[in-house]
Amino acid sequence: MRRYEETHPWLVFKPDLDLGAETWMQLGEIHSKCEHVAGVPLIPAIQEHFNQVFLSKGAHATTRIEGNTLSEEAVRKRIQNELKLPPSQEYLGQEVDNVLEAYGMIMSDVAVGKSLELTPGRILELNRIICKDLDNLADDAIPGQLRTHGVSVANYIGAPAEDCEYLINRLCEWLKQLEADAPAGFEFQVSVVSAILAHLYLAWIHPFGDGNGRTARMVEFQLLAKARMPDVSAHLLSDHYNRTRTRYLSVLDRASKVQPYDTKPFIRYALQGLLDGLREQVDMIKAQQMAVTWENFIHEKFHHETSPAARRRRHLVLSLPVGEITTTADVRRLNPELAEEYAGHTQKMINRDLNALQDMGLVIRTRSGVQPAIEQMRAFLPLRAARSQPLARHMPKSPSTG
Predict the structure, then answer these.
(1) Per-residue confidence at 401, pLDDT binned at 50, 70, 90?
(2) pLDDT per residue over 321-360, tens digit each?
(3) 96-142 pLDDT, tens per residue?
(4) Which is deepest, 82, 97, 211, 370, by most CB within 10 Å?
């Protein structure tokens, strides 16, 4: 009998996949939305922005949970090599750099088709990168090497040091078997659950002297990538844990404190956050597609209009921010190009242009100002019935025919 079986009885490597119909439906929606995100092309500039936003969120989240104080905006600047930190704060930037390097290694492997199967060596390599060149590591922590001493975080004590190598090997074998046993048609869903379980078990084992949380979340990211989840979506779990950090730590702690030791609450907590994040991503993509369709529609409306006034009006309507009301006085200040076009002209010219655009059905004018009439694009969407009202909890009885 190994020592961990006495000290850590929750490390049973027996997943309970009886998660309930609602959770399996969520997993189906997660799969569907991942396919949506992966299958919709965006114009290069928007795609690059999309990638930057979620890479920043992922790197910020996985370091912030461990105490890194850099903001998400600062992390984005670090990614773009625009963040200069004083020597006393450089370790914060190094922590972010290490996470970015680990992400980069995983996605490089994806790009060249290299196997992403989790191995003990891969877990050690991820920890080595995570902890590289940091001068604030815990005592006796050696990047990429299993600990030989006891560790604790908050009130949690890691598994016995003498069992760490065995437990890491057991974890990798167990996850491999989980995927092999997945029912046909449910491979993606089981892989997502396996990624969350890998995160949870690594947090329980705590095999390293430092960087365990970041390594666990990086392993989770790799397994989500292995499941063919888009990279921008694979960052969502770390972002969810950071947004709900208090609950994250509470659910994580409760899983090993309350008998019977149940992984399902942590799985459900993680999946709900992942699904919420995916819904937000799909909404962002829809908004970008709507904006592109609107721009094409405007160009089509002005296709045969070549006069200076027509070009100016086309520029004006495309400059109006979607979802906002712009006062007529602010129109000439929307961008430098419009300012130049209206330079030397009175407000009357702007009003004439806005009236012309209103007659074309391209803007909506109110007392407060003007906004683009982009809502008309919804007329080009497929027709479907309005959302029906929810059924009453207790339906009335049918009248008697007696």
Answers:
(1) very low
(2) 988 999 999 999 999 999 999 999 999 999 999 999 999 9
(3) 999 999 999 999 999 999 999 999 999 999 999 999 999 989 888 99
(4) 211
Looking at residue 258, its amino acid is V
Rounded to the nearest 5 degrees, what angle is found at the Cα of 18, between the Cα atoms of 229 and 267?
A: 45
- The first and second tokens of residue 96, run together, are 């972010």
Q: What is the 3-state secondary structure (H, E, C) of the chain?
A: CCCHHHHCCCCCCCCCCCCCHHHHHHHHHHHHHHHHHHHCCCCHHHHHHHHHHHHHHHHHHHHHCCCCCCCHHHHHHHHCCCCCCCHHHHHHHHHHHHHHHHHHHHHHHHHHCCCCCCCHHHHHHHHHHHHCCCCCCCCCCCCCCECCCCCEECCEECCCHHHHHHHHHHHHHHHHHHHHCCCCCCHHHHHHHHHHHHHHHHHHHCCECCCHHHHHHHHHHHHHHHCCCCHHHHCHHHHHHHHCHHHHHHHHHHHCCCCCCCCHHHHHHHHHHHHHHHHHHHHHHHHHHHHHHHHHHHHHHCCCCCCHHHHHHHHHHHHCCCCCCECHHHHHHCCHHHHHHHCCCCHHHHHHHHHHHHHCCCEEECCCCEEECHHHHHHHCCCCCCCCCCCCCCCCCCCCCC
Q: How far apart are CA 361 and CA 353, in angstroms?
A: 12
Task: Say how far apart CA 68 and CA 60 lie, in whole Å.
Answer: 8
Q: How far lies 372's CA from each of 87, 256, 264, 367, 382, in Å?
A: 48, 54, 47, 15, 22
Q: Which is it for strands 156-157 and 152-153: parallel, antiparallel or unpaired?
A: antiparallel
